[in-house]
Amino acid sequence: MGLALDLARRAAALGEVPVGAVVLDAAGHLLATGHNRTILDRDPTAHAEVVALRAAARSLDNYRLTGARLYVTLEPCAMCLGAMFHARLAEIVYGAPDPKTGACGGVVDLSAQPRLNHHARVRGGVRAQACGDLLRDFFRARREAARVARGLAAPETVSGGHPAAPPFFQDDPSMPKQKSDSAAPSRPAPGGEHTHLVCDDPECGVHHVHEQPSGIYLISPSGAVADPASLDLAMERLRAMGFRVAADRTALAVHERFAGTDKQRLAGIQRALKQKHPVVMATRGGYGLSRLLPHIDWRAVADSGKTFLGQSDFTVFNLALLARTGAVSLAGPTAIFDFGGKKVDDLTQALFQETLSGELEILSFESPGADPVDARGILWGGNLAMVASLVGTPYLPDVKGGILFLEDVSEHPFRIERMLTQLWHAGVLEKQHAIVLGQFTDYRLAPHDNGYDLDSVVRWLRQTVRVPVVTGLPYGHVKVKATLPVGARVGIATEDGMAHLVLREHTH
C-alpha cells in the first residue's frame, strides 16, 4: 500500500485526484502499477485500478490475471470492480472507503453478489487513515485555490505594496499540451470525481519514512560504453548505496558509435518496462535516442510505473515522454559519468538518493544577479542542444507558464545563443515563468570574440526575452549535479543572491 500511496502522489503532480494502484502476481512479485489518468487522458475509464490492470495484462500478454492481488488507496467503484472480476483477481485490498461510489460496501457491495461467476477476497481499511488524509488534504487545497481564484481571499503583498505571487498550491496553466497520446488540461477539473498530492506532513502516514526505491536497471539507449570496467564500478557503487542493480543484456553492445543497433536499443527499453526494478537509468549519454523516438510506445512507458533517469542525449526521452503522456521522469546522474569514475561526488549522491526517496523538498543554490521571480509551473528542459533539436516535432512539450532549465557542454557561447534564439523564434521562451540556466562547460573562447562570452549571452537573453533568468543551477555535464523531476509542478523563487527550487510542497 505504501507504493500505491507513492503513485497517488505522482497523480497529484499531474493535477489528478490522488489514487494509486499496484498489482502483484500470485507469488507476490510486482506486476504493474498505475495512478489515476482520467483528466490527463480525457478518458473516463482511466482510473488507477484500470490503468494498473491494463499494464499487468500487457506484461503477461494475457488479460487473465489469475491469482493476482491488487492494492488501491481508495475503495473501487463498480466499473473497476467489474474489471477486476473479469481479470480473475484472487484478492482486492483497498485503503480508504468511498461513501459516494464505493462498490465494496461504500454504496453497494458487488463483491458479495452470489450470482457473479467470479469472486475475490476483499479486504478494506488498510492504511485507511493515510489514504483518506491524502484525499482530504487534496480537496481542502482545491477549495482554497478556488476561493483565491474567485477573489474571496485577500491578496498578500510584498515590500513596496505589490501583490505577492499566488500560493504554490494554486493551479496554473503550465501543463503541456500533449500532441497525440493524451491531452492535459490547463487545470484540474472540478472536484468529486473518483479519480485517483502530496501529503508532506511528517505526522501523516503517507510519509512512510522516506524509503528509496529498491532497485535500478541500467540501459544504454544512446552511445556505446567505451570502458566496460567503468560500468562494473558504477554498479558496485550503486549497490553500496543500498540498491539492487542489474544491467540490460545489451548494455555493452556496440554498433558503429552506438550501444547496439536501433533494434537492439529499442528492445532494451522494452525489457526495462517488464523487469522488476522500479528505476531505469541510462549508462551514459552520447547520441542515438533521437532515432528511436517514433518507435517507442510512450503509453507503455508511462503505464509501466518505472522512473526513468538520465541526462544529455536522454533529454529527448524525458521530453518526449512528457509531451506524449504527461508522465514525470528524472534528469540527473548517469551510471558511468557520475558513479563509474575515480570518485563519486558526495553532494551528487546525496541529492540523487534524496530525490528518489522523496526526501528532498527544496534545492537552494547561489545565483548572483538573478532576476526576481516567485512563480510555480511545470519543470522541464535539459540539454539545450537536445531541446532545440525537438522544435517543430511532436516530442517537444507545449508548456505554458513553465520553469525551463537548460545546460550544455562543449558549445561556444555563440552556439548557445544561436540555440536560444531558435527557441525564442519558435515562441518557446516567452511562454515560460522562468528560465533557469545550469552549467555551460568545456568551451574555448577565441581572440576575435573580443570580450563576447557566456555573460554576454545571458545579458542578451534578459534584454530580449523579458522572462526572469536565474543562473547557477547545479546541473549539467559537471560532477556536482542535482536530480530534477521533469514534468513535475515546482516553485521557483529568488532572494538576496540565492535561488530556491521548491520540489515538494506542503499543502497544510
Radius of gyration: 23 Å
Spatial arrangement of strands, main beta sheet: 11-18-17-12-13-14-15
Q: Roughly what percent helix?
A: 25-40%
Instruction: Describe the largest sheet.
Output: 7 strands, mixed
What distance lies between the first and last C-alpha atoms, to the nearest angstrom? 23 Å
Overall 3D geometry?
Answer: globular
Average pLDDT across residues?
A: 86
Number of strands: 18
Structural class, by secondary structure, is alpha/beta
Unreliable stretches (pLDDT < 50, length at least 5) are: 152-175, 177-209
- DSSP strand content: 15-25%
DSSP helix count?
Answer: 15
Relevant terms:
508 residues; alpha/beta; 15 helices; globular
Structure commentary:
This protein has 508 residues and is α/β, with parallel strands linked by helices. It is built from 15 helices and 18 strands. β1 and β2 form a beta hairpin. α14 runs parallel beside α15. The longest helix has 22 residues. It is globular and about 85 Å long. The chain starts with a helix and ends in a 6-residue tail after the last strand. 49% of the residues are buried. About 11% of the residues have low confidence.
